[in-house]
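Example record

The entry below shows one chain as it appears in the dataset: sequence first, then structure tokens.
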Amino acid sequence: MPSGKRIGIVIPSSNVVIEPLAVQRFGKSNDTVHFSRLGVVAIELNAKSLAQFEMGEQLSAAQKLCDAQVDAIVWGGTSSSWLGIEHDEEYRRFIQQETGISTTTCVLEMNRKLASLSARRISIVTPYTDAVHNRILDNYEELGFPRPTGQNFGGTVSNDFASISSNILKDMVLSVAKNSPDAIMIMCTNLRGAAVAEDLSKQLGLPVIDSAAATLQAGSRLIYQKSPKIQITAEDNFEL
């Protein structure tokens, strides 16, 4: 059996969702997925929480994947959804420059999907506090989307997000679907939203984009470059 390629993913240290999902989706593949962790415990807008995503720490986590000689690096966290998409644009440039390895992020991949779908009206489901959730809606509005609709759970401790049941997630997605968006985003890689997204995409007849699944899809896309690089950036200004 020929050897496959290696996908490197940096995940928040509190994340317990992406690794099991990778086992499910790559269990019979020749390609393999390898992980490094960035210290992330709580999600708030205070200085201590924001410092978790400092670029030096991000680089340190990514460099550890170089020892595994991975073919691609993906940041498997949704931090730029509230920090601003510029943070992930910088991450992609900086990590790729420092490691020489093709790099992208979860949120850039989700935004690429929105662009490929020509989605304009979007709804966003998150587990975060009102402050973080509303910052995410603000950032997508600044990207040129009409004010997104959304629903949030109200939590701060990242590890707790994985305990949110699939039934709750399903209800949240169905609730925002009433706004007739072009696409729905489940924004947090520590939510068990992959199966919910797949089932509800079929049921609702509209794309439900899960961030954990998008992280793995980003890695697969990078190692084979099967899709065009369509990205939404902070500089884009859409005609709505």
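Notes for this example: The chain has eleven helices and eight strands. The chain has two domains: 6-106+213-224, 109-210.
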